[in-house]
Amino acid sequence: MTRRPLPGPAGRAAGALALAAALAAATAPPAGAAARPSVPTIKVVDGETQPVFSRADAVTQTVDIETEVDSDRDGVRDRVRLRIMRPKETDRGLRVPTILEPSPYWAGVHDDVPMHPVDIGGAQARSRAAVQRNLAEIFPGYYDNYFLPRGYAVANLDSIGTGGSTGCPTSGDRAEQAGTKAAVDWLNGRARGWAPDGTPVKATWSTGSVGMIGQSYNGTLPNMAAAGGVTGLKAIVPIAAISSWYDYYRANGGVVAPGGYQGEDLDVLAKVVLTRANPEVCAKVIDELTAAQDRETGDYGRVWAERDYVRDARNVKAAVMVVHGLNDWNVKVKNSVQWWNALKEAGVPRKLWLHQGDHATPFRWRVEEWLRQTHHWFDRWLYGIRNGITAEPRVDIERAPGRWETARDWPVPGTRTVPLSLNAGAQGQPGVLSPRPRPGAPQSMVDAGRTRTAEELLAGEDRADPNRLVYLTAELTEAVRVNGIPRMSVRASFDGGSAGADPGERSPYLTALLVDYGTDTRPTGARVDTGERVCFGEGVPGDDGCTTRLALRTETAPFKIVTRGWLDVRNRHGAGRTEPIAPGREYTFAWDLEPTDYVFKPGHRIGVVVLSTDYDFTLRYPAGTRLTLRPGSSSLLFPMAPGGSLEGLG
């Protein structure tokens, strides 16, 4: 095992600025007067704050903060608990900004909450077993060692209904938003707070500038706080975070699970994180959530609009550094990409990291650069230091494990949409994926229901399979990069009871998989321990200020699902509108796949696989839906980055 200290960041921007909030003017006392003790200050060198304060001597405090809501309906405003660690010099006049991680997980979770049933039909009444959650991956635990010595307070917040807070967890609605807002308000003197003994407490040491950072739910809470437009929230770093809960638990009118959590929904998650005292007071609130979430139609409605922060992007006052894994099928990439696009439209300062991990933070395998950029991000927006971070390339993309590229925007400028037609093959199936449409006889498949996974259905691509349709390009002669949001347009009919008068009979789903066919070694998204210790901050007993560097796991396989997407065909006119379809009648169905950034190598083939039930994500109806697709009238709209060509594929 090697142990290597973290090197100091290089390539600083222009020199240090005078910081009005932190630097006091030095004046000579009158003759004969006693000298006043100097006010401590931060130190800035080469455009960044320096580690001059002691983590070991830090002051800690706990504050219960009054919110503006009463989510548990007990007649008293909810309170959220904030735990703070700050330099001891803040008791002698030093005023500092705060880096805050809000979370529903600080008090743990209930891992015994059963999931909703997903096998529709005879097994419909059976709930699925609870899923164990690995919270260790969500908390990197370095903020106190790294940021506190550089002149920041660090804090964690129990979100509403969890840990030491009151109220009821409601999976992302405006009440939870009020909890994070209250913390920012207290740090700015606009909300009341009390110590555990009931003594009123004010944040006299706070500059009022607040940053938030976190992964998964811990990153979603900063998104919702920013969408509320709270004054004082200056910067956030949401990692693998939700921007619309509809796109976490639904897709295009269909009930679609987060990867690894089949059967979870708003109410299940609320029960999982309900760790406050006297949790029984929230039973009615969560029962109402169960009724409102609508697992029957999957339509976008009021309950989802209340949990859609994308609609409120123009309220955002904080600079946003968006981080997401291209192999994340828990919080899918759409959540970050639609947030990124909305922030661009709103003119919000922003950065983007797209990495090859799954539901994870790249801190553990790109330690040095992660700390450099997040440090400069918070220095720029919380201390006002013009360190050049906003002049750097806006986007970092991990192309392969450990190999990163930068770009000025994403999708990369010059990306264009190339239509690829789903054509019949010489023997019908497998079909051909080509820039030139060729009309052909209709092709049919019968849904396998809950008997076969997507991975099983896409194997054996060179032969026909009764349970899916596949369309393949010729072998590529040059690398081709998909970069953005692929879209499907399919002319097809459904039969066999699917989505007709009784939608419970057969599957109403249309699923498309974009597949890289060709044996290769690719990242899976998982991580492995390298054994190398990297030290990044001041250690204290029980916490050495170091971490173990990880590396991305790879596997050699004949194919990879690059991205996928789903549509409930009854929602062909929009996610908020269910309309039955006539069995056997042709319709045009259009839907997006999840955003992606991926390079298909020379010698590989691009494949589109069309099926109905997606075992690990959709509800699983009884087998039997017949899908009949019209070749030549169906296509994949492929967002291709500059430098590639698909013209020679027939």
TrEMBL record:
SUPFAM superfamilies: alpha/beta-Hydrolases (SSF53474), Galactose-binding domain-like (SSF49785). Keywords: Aminopeptidase, Hydrolase, Protease, Serine protease, Signal. Its EC number is 3.4.14.11. It is an enzyme of class 3 (hydrolase). It catalyses: Hydrolyzes Xaa-Pro-|- bonds to release unblocked, N-terminal dipeptides from substrates including Ala-Pro-|-p-nitroanilide and (sequentially) Tyr-Pro-|-Phe-Pro-|-Gly-Pro-|-Ile. The keyword Zinc-finger does not apply. Residues 375-637 form the Xaa-Pro dipeptidyl-peptidase C-terminal domain. Residues 422-448 are annotated as: Disordered. InterPro entries: AB_hydrolase_fold (IPR029058), CocE/Ser_esterase (IPR005674), Galactose-bd-like_sf (IPR008979), Pept_S15_Xpro (IPR008252), Xaa-Pro-like_dom (IPR000383), Xaa-Pro_dipept_C (IPR013736). Residues 1-33 form the signal peptide. Pfam families: Peptidase_S15, PepX_C. Belongs to the peptidase S15 family. This is Xaa-Pro dipeptidyl-peptidase.
